[in-house]
Amino acid sequence: MKRLRVPLTMIVGASDLLVQPMTKLAAMLDCRLAIIPDAGHLPQIDHPNELDAAIKRHLQEAARSE
Fold this sequence. Notes:
The chain contains three helices and two strands; from the N terminus they run βαβαα. The chain is an alpha+beta fold and about 70 residues long.
């Protein structure tokens, strides 16, 4: 398996049934996993402000790693 050479953050809702598979995938890809509390499968609808904050954190961390 090829490794990604760019920073990657997966963002999922804590109540999403896909959290456990995404946790395993994030570990396999060696990427960050941001879990939004009280959000389901659509965190962009459930908690858009928290999603925006997770994206901003990712972009700030990616800019620092360049």
